[in-house]
Amino acid sequence: MASVLYILGLGLLTLSAILPSPAGSHCETNDITTCSPAQSQVVLFFFSLYLVAVGQGGHKPCTQAFGADQFDGQDPEECKAKSSFFNWWYFGVCAGATVTIFILSYIQDNLSWALGFGIPCIAMAIALVVFLLGTTTYRYSIKQNEKGPFVRITSVFVAAFRNWRTTPSDMASDEESREFLPDQSSEQFKFLNKALFAPKYLEKGDSVCSKAEVEEAKAVLRLVPIWVTCLVYGIVYAQVGTFYTKQGATMDRTVVSGYKIPPASLQCFIGLAIIMIIPIYDRIFVPIARVFTRNPSGITMLQRIGVGIFLSALSMVVAALVEMKRLKTAREYDLVDKPSATVPMSVWWLVPQYFIFGLADVFTLVGLQEFFYDQVPTELRSIGLALYLSVIGIGSFLSSFLISVIEKATGGDGHSSWFSNNLNRAHLDYFYWLIVGLNAIGFVAFLHFARSYIYNRSTM
């Protein structure tokens, strides 16, 4: 269904580009008013964009979860293959995006917007056909519980809340609760253990929660501190397409005489870093690490995420140092009050921070995908993958909030804020150092929760 919506959105987007503008020849005057398209065409365009967003929102996590479901986590060899699947999935996404940026941007700028939108539509339609051709060969998980996962988890919290004032002497335990013996997992969130017991006034026909349901609720609850501490990575992620690009726009972007690269094109170095590093990680690092750790994935998912968070902080350190040099160069050449002038410093100085962040993506984003897929109840795996995507989304909101607060705190009274439109008077370096500090705090908190985390499956 999500694929159909995705294709429909891309098709309508192509149609909006094909439809002739009623302005016609008036556009030769370059008058924005006379060249404006019809209102219906604008509505169709934005409706198409929202439809693509909805389709992608359903397609991306569900397709990835379904792909990972094809591997048996109980089989040692397939367990290794499943971990490798997440690496190559992200490799494919980044490789496709990098190639698409180069090809479609050229087609849209130089040939036709309709063709630029039409090619992805055709590609998605072909992908859907190929996917359907394999229908008879796919594995499907069999539902073993009549109650849905949301109902099971909610019922545990409701039962624990109802029994929070009761003591063991006030409760009549059923057969399963009498057999319940606390283990390592059950020592966490012990207040949920009360959901295992039924008060003496339990009505006939009602039931108490099972041990499996309580442990499932605990597993979901254990994800919360990991998710929260990973938000610092989302804050760093938000800088790549914003301030990194703004820095590059002020620097010397000449590649050859008469040609300057667009500042946003430096983001391709992230994709290139990912394309280069993932094969090395999957084919060289993981087999070597397996020898020492005996873990099918080489290192645990949380270890992988932690390395990525550390590398993201390192990329911000490099970004802060480069920005300090850029400001120093602007002062040396008396360009502080000349925001439109090019700072005589090569834009290639920014490449290391992009490359390091691409390396951080290989560890953190792929690790988050595998972690939230593996550690949620089976029926919630697609939602688990959506949860990993929310780290990026909410991280961007937190970044915007920080910027708004700092803008008000540092601006006004004739002073330039840290984010002044004149970057030569701004202090992005201060902001970067602040993020480094927040990242360090988040990293320490992440290590604390990661050390006490108990995996709810044999695969780690």
TrEMBL record:
Segment forming the signal sequence:
1-25
Pfam families assigned to the protein according to its UniProt record, in alphabetical order: PTR2
Q: Which UniProt keywords apply?
A: Membrane, Signal, Transmembrane, Transmembrane helix
Q: Tell whether Magnesium is among the UniProt keywords.
A: no
User: What are its GO cellular component terms?
Assistant: membrane
User: TM segments?
Assistant: 37-54, 88-107, 113-134, 220-244, 264-281, 302-322, 354-373, 385-406, 430-450
This protein's record includes keyword Lipid metabolism:
no
Q: What family is this protein classified in? A: Belongs to the major facilitator superfamily. Proton-dependent oligopeptide transporter (POT/PTR) (TC 2.A.17) family.
Q: Can you say what this protein is called? A: Proton-dependent oligopeptide transporter
| Organism expressing this protein natively | Trema orientale (Charcoal tree)
